[in-house]
Amino acid sequence: MKVLLKGLLSVFKLRKIYALFIVSLSTLPVISAQAEIQLSGEIKQGGLVIGKTHTNDVVTLNEKVLPVSKHGDYVFAFSRDDKTQYTLTITSPTGTVETQTFTPEKRDYKISRVEGISKKIMNPNKKANIRAGEDRAEMVKVRKISSDLTDFSQGFIAPRSSRITGVYGSQRFYNGIPKNPHFGVDYSGQIGAPVTAPASGTVLLWVPDMFYSGGTLVIDHGHGITSNFLHLSASMVKAGDKVKQGQVIAKVGNSGRVTGPHLDWRMNWHKVRFDPQLAMKIIPFK
Ligand SMILES: [Zn+2]
């Protein structure tokens, strides 16, 4: 009996250690378990992760080479429903290889159902579809850009100090049909209220009248990280302008297809849409 108890206890202890290990991997900000791999951010669906290494190291994420800045900064992100198992590999110029394997933690998103939506809203006309397609093509083009800016490494601050009225990942069902999930963070605000830059960067695009998103501004923070601001009434900046973190860049509006004025802030790592609220939790490296 005593022996059996002892055995059970040691199993329990092992479990506890295992649980601690899992926690340390999944509830970041993490300074990685392996000494050399330094990551900040949450390994979670919709999460953004920034890494720090030596400038001449080669960093790959599942065989895809990630650009490393001259200060050793690199970045990657996980999409809303990402279930991929990733292996991050860092190879030094001398051939030392370090790896870390992880799977983004699963999240539950807010789901709501709306019945009795009119046909007109459900099915926009042909002309509208063409315009929306052109807008999309323009956005696809800017998301392919991978500049060597490293502004993402400074971390991100809220573009407004107002209330958050919509969150990343939430999804509506209209008359039982699932709509695209909401990928932005919505902030309240009246028309003309200021929008500030969450991080420094360069303006990639300003279009005052996209079909769905209305006044749309895109800022490049480097390495494929962009901020997108939707439904704006005005922009104080134009394509090519440099902006500083905290600088007023635009004004809240109700342009495009919205029910009222608000700011919708979205973030991308190239095609991957991640959660700006997780990005704001990142603690930058010194
Ligand atoms: Zn929104």
Task: Please give a structural write-up.
The protein is α+β, with helices and mostly antiparallel strands and 286 residues long. The chain has two domains: 2-102, Immunoglobulin-like, CATH 2.60.40; 111-274, Glucose Permease (Domain IIA), CATH 2.70.70.10. The chain has helices at residues 2-26, 119-122, 126-143, 276-279, and strands spanning 38-41, 48-52, 58-61, 64-66, 73-77, 86-91, 97-102, 111-114, 164-166, 171-174, 177-178, 185-188, 194-196, 201-210, 214-222, 225-232, 234-235, 242-243, 248-251, 262-269, 272-274. Strands 9, 12, 14, 15, 16, 18, 20 and 21 form an eight-stranded antiparallel beta sheet that branches. A four-stranded antiparallel beta sheet has the order 4-3-6-7, with no helix packed on it. It has a three-stranded antiparallel beta sheet with strand order 1-2-5. The chain is globular. Zinc ion is lined by residues 166, 182, 184, 186, 264.
